[in-house]
Amino acid sequence: MATLDPALAPTTTLPAARRNLLxxxxxxxxxxxxxxxxxxxxxxxxxxFGADPRTVYPAAHLIAAVxxxxxxxxxxxxxxxxxxxxPWGLLKYWWTALKxxxxxxLTGVVVLVLVPGLGAAADVASKAPQTFTAAERVPLVLAxxxxxxxxxxxxxxxxxxxxxxxxxxxxxxxxxxTEYA
Length: 181
Fold this sequence. Notes:
By secondary structure, the protein is mostly helical. Helix content is 76%, strand content 0%. The protein contains 6 helices and no strands.
């Protein structure tokens, strides 16, 4: 059995009970985002295969606005809190930096693109459902498929925790020493 280098072993600055509570909330809201993305994927696929846009787009907008958006924001906030309050850090390891980038990008897309876009599509669908071409329905499949793939990558990164560091204390000390020497 491989031993973990003590310098890389995570230790928390939070008491264990609070860290576990924060981690539990983070996992729950992140799984919630993933599950709701899968629901959006099913709605998108049903739309592509001929479901009535008057039912698909209002339902997709409701799910995105009421569930995905707050859960994505909570996932980002709890993930940042975990990064700041544990030695894993936000930008210390590649896996934490990549998870932060993915979560930030997906949250931004949900808030700035997905919810407003589905709201507009729901409005159009309620007035003229026949105006949606097959090509216009495809993004409702592709966006949640891509989001679900990226969320699955986040899960893999969290489980496997590749030890590749972005920077180490010795790198910082070396740079600081040469800058002032």
